[in-house]
Amino acid sequence: METLALVAPITSLEFFEDKFLLTGEGPVLSAYSLHCSPKGFTSLSVLQHQRIHGIRPRSQCVKSAQSSASQHGLRSGSEPSFHDFAVFGGKALRVVRLHVDIQNVENFHFEILGPLLELQDWVLDARWLSGSSPSQLCVAVAHNGALLVDVAAGHVVTQRFCLEGCLLYSALLVVHEFWAETVLVGGTVFNQLIVWKTENKDEGWDSGHKAPVERRLLGHTGVIFSVAYLQEEGFLASASDDRSVRLWGVGALGGPGGKCGDVNPACLRVLYGHQARVFSVRLSPGRVFSAGEDGACVVWDWNEGGKVMRTLKGHRAGGVRALAVSEKVVDNRRWVATGGADGGVRLWNVEGGQEEAAVTTELTDLKFPQLGLPKIVCMVGGGENPSWSQFVVCTDRGSVCLYSDGTWETIWQGTAEFQSYCVMETVNVCVKDSAATVSLCAVGNISGSLEIFPVSCPRSGVRLSGGSGKIQSLHFQKEKERVYLLASGAEGLVHRWCVEVRKSESCSLVVSVWRLPPFLLPQCAKRWLTAAVRLQTSSKKVLWVCGDRRGSLLLFQENMRLDEDQSREMLDPPLQPLSCLFGVHGKHGVTSVCEYQGLFYSTGKDGCVRVFRVHQSKPEERLENASEVNIGLKLDVLRVQRACKGMEWLERALILESAVCLDEEDHREMTLVFEKQNVGVWPGYGALVFIKQGAVLTSQPPGEAVGAKAGARDLREGVHGRGIWCVCRVGRIGNVVQTKNTENEGGGNEKRKSLWEIIVTGGEDTSLAVLAVHPPSGAVRVLSLITDHISGVRTVTAVRRPHSNSGNQLLSALLVSAGGRAQIQSYRLLVGWNGQTLTPSCQVIQVGGHRLDEQWERRKNRHKTVKMDPETRYVSLAVVEESSDHVLLALSCSDGAVRLFSVTESKNQIDLLWETFHHQRCVLSVATCSLEGVKDDRSKLLFSAATDGKIAVWHLTGVSSDISSGATNPPAPCLNIPAHQSGVNSLVVWVEKLGREGGGGCLVTVASGGDDGQLTVSTIKVQFPGNGKAGGSRGFSEISDCQSSVEALLTDQRELQLHLLSQRRIPLAHAAPLTALKLLSPGLLVSTSSDQRVCLWKVSDVGIGHSGALCSHVADAAAMAVWEGEEEEAISTTGSELVNALCREQESQTQSETKTEETEGGWSSDGEEAAGEQELRQPAVAVKETVDPVCKEEDTTDHSKSEPQPDSSGETVNGTNGKLCLKAFPDGQTGIINEGWVLVCGQGLQLLRVRSAEMDAWREKREKSNCSVKVTLQKQQT
């Protein structure tokens, strides 16, 4: 097994000469170029099974580039420069060299120097000595000691331990040239900082003495996670579990004589600003940088009383685990890098004092004159770059004041009916037949009248009438040389006008207005317009999508009018909405609606962004008030996306084109959402103006140049900040690309397939991530993030169906996820191919959702039933049946129930069909299998397992016909199997057909893994109706009498007959609870556990054989997905076809029924476990396979245990067999695989490739690079 892709928490970061950023992710060392575009990248696995916790560059090169080039056979014309690094983590240490080509700085790679040095204690810090022996490294260990290690010789030269023999949580070595000048600062488990030195020649220490504590710093109330020292200032900083950062004045540390600083070091600052534990701290002149579990990196100014200058947030949940700050400041800029628990690496551009001062500057009061209380502020200005120094304010006295060049001027004074109440809106419009632009201002009052006038020429205004009631809101919609004004009046009428601005013969401005038919809003309490957008679909038809105060989205259609003389005063009846999504944004209303590339985006005060479209509805879905001439149009919500936690009022969504993205290396479309704070926001600018307590305030003085600040960019995108609890594979997509062939002498281009694996993960952070994994390069891209769950996502599955139009070659799947709070969500997932970026693109469409508490609230007689537990969670799900119109799903529940649901995509509906409480305790897992009888009749079995260790078997054949006939009674289990002493976490089922010699029927094998760490394989004989009695399998004896009480033998010849034949167990398959078990091929199982082992098991007639294991880099492994590497055609399409293909798919009336695939062995199961795959290429980094000892097997059958015997292929089946070319059945039905894939998920994810035959050359290379040396203390000769 070898690792192809890894996403794990970033545990180490280090800048090198401000040219490279080095990261540690698990055992993988990576380097990013900070100046290459596109960004240069290289990586190498260096610490085997240890996590990298520190990277220390050597201060100078001790070997010349020429000697290194000659040693490695490099040509003198392309001599590379190289840099050495000490990489440490756990109890391991290794030296790695980074080669950089001088002629091409984008060409760089790592090289391992020497073996892996394994120490006898945990390494907390390591520093190079700059003295006469350049190969010596000073190492701090967890038992409060310091070692001097000769990395070239591979042994410890000397060591020193502190007299206070306590454990350290963190350590900092202050080194100079020699060992005697080294000082160690340690953070103890007793919440203290201690300072001691390694040598003291005055007192005549020898190697047997322990060093006393020279300084002790007290004050923290929690353990200390990180220590930093700034030599220029003599400052020491510490980060602690008590959520604080402390700054100490310790003076000079280290140097000649081993200085330990001031005798009485003082605590200069106590910095509280984090909401959780603080993991890392760094120092720079005038600044303190800290990062913690709250996911924030806080920049402090120690000169200004320790106030917060900036807070950098960009990682997902889980916190920031690593922090690095560049030493040099170039162009008043400093790089700050953060690495999160989500596996993301983020680079921040923190500038000097000017930028930080702008964030914390005081507000500017514009000294509004005593002309009344300001009520509304709006921006004015012409052109694409509106003036930051001009805006208008409307007061409660009905006056409009203009602020320009630092002065206020009253430009318009309304009549008495404009006082005490008014609404105002502005817009910039082009003058007809001219290149000039003007600002229009519209003001409405309480009596239904409004006035529209140019700001530069208020006397050219026009008075309009909007009914008898007050004007609730005003909205402008721009379109080239004209604008549309919408005014919400009384009784739900939205009055509309088309406005144009012209120049008269005397060069004065003339405002022309003609009335359009009004809109009529639906009946509701708060009946006025809050947002609108106009879309012209044809030369004669215009669509309006509006949002109202009740939170509804409305669709209107009108005939386009171009001539002014067609205007009539209220002769046309009000336009009724063609479609209405009532209250989709909640009762607080819609705040904005915009259109982009045929899709609509709406925001509301519910904190959500909704993506929807307009499409043709079916005849039965059309509204009764729609005209027969009009085609049936309706609004259809495709996606609901919550912005982020804490943003409950979204004011606007802005679509940023790729040309204005801040990150020049990541040209993607992004949506920015601003939170409402009663402010005016200028497009392209970062300044704000708002009204507070009767004053007009700005975030900075008007007129100053304001630009977008340089923000952050992702060197690597994070996935999940917390544990991944479930995973499923959707499929593979890609295309053929041409690459240069450098191997052949003739050169030329070579066609290769660029294939990406599409994976969906869900976890503790309540989100679903659609990922694209590129195995050859190890790249992982987040295609979409779904945040509809209100609690953790426990299980997810993808039902893959062929697209209705096969010409588009879309990868389409129905995605179903379930988790906490008894919530189910369903989506249509469309994955296409972007021909420009050569990467997949994704479209997520929301199908429906279901919650048990909401269903209980809708019951008529709910007072007679017991209310469901709000903490009920779904733990596992399995696909029972697929058809053209619905999918049946079985879910295991924590309240002891097994529930059957139906997902109907055409109706966007999820229904609960029945539930049964047979287990009476938490049901942990479910699985299904299909049986094919003699007469091609198919049967379906459902397996469910609970915390009591028992497995129940249910016969679900004909469940669809029962549901269609109205029968909702759940069946009774037909067999109960005792399998474990505690909970069963995972089930795997496969089927083997029996011939006539075996009495017909089939054998169903059930493999299960539990909390007891046991692997159990149960074999069930299934006899179909009319085939005679059950019994007599090939070599299987019946189970003993002590287990006959739990067997269920059906005597009715019209039903299936099930009989438990045998059980085999591996009591200690893992050293911890077995959390995931999957079927790679019939008879070949893959298991994982929180002990971080991935094990392969062969199941055959003679027993269960352990075929190999790998130590995974993913902690707390909880989920796994496996698939075979068979050949299949890659699916490709363009990203622009997604929306059109989606319309064709949902408008199709019929869809072919998809059946589960069958393999040669006669078995069938879910597509997640049996999907065929295409062979991938060699990975960039491989991990050596390790094999565990033989596991003892227990067999409950009557026949005696047999020794491992070689099968027909000559392979020995025992625990020491390292080959993966396995045979599952002795009669020719084999479980041999050429290539398999295993995806392990937990605190991160790791993609493994299982190959049938490992290359000898690859093994030798890995063994040489991964060899390790035990480091011991070398005694000096006396």
From TrEMBL:
One of its GO terms (biological process) is tRNA methylation. It comes from the Eukaryota. SMART domains: WD40. It is found in: Cytoplasm. GO terms for cellular component: cytoplasm. Its main location: cytoplasm. Residues 1185-1204 have a biased composition (Basic and acidic residues). It holds the Pfam family WD40. WD repeats lie at residues 217-248, 271-310, 336-358. Keywords: Cytoplasm, Repeat, tRNA processing, WD repeat. SUPFAM superfamilies: WD40 repeat-like. The keyword tRNA processing applies. Residues 1205-1215 have a biased composition (Polar residues). Residues 1144-1215 are annotated as: Disordered. PROSITE patterns: WD_REPEATS_2 (PS50082), WD_REPEATS_REGION (PS50294). The keyword tRNA processing applies. Belongs to the WD repeat WDR6 family. Together with methyltransferase FTSJ1, methylates the 2'-O-ribose of nucleotides at position 34 of the tRNA anticodon loop of substrate tRNAs. Required for the correct positioning of the substrate tRNA for methylation. Required to suppress amino acid starvation-induced autophagy. Enhances the STK11/LKB1-induced cell growth suppression activity. Interacts with FTSJ1; the interaction is direct, and required for 2'-O-methylation of position 34 in substrate tRNAs. Interacts with IRS4. Interacts with STK11/LKB1. This is tRNA (34-2'-O)-methyltransferase regulator WDR6. It comes from Oryzias javanicus (Javanese ricefish). The lineage of its organism: Eukaryota, Metazoa, Chordata, Craniata, Vertebrata.
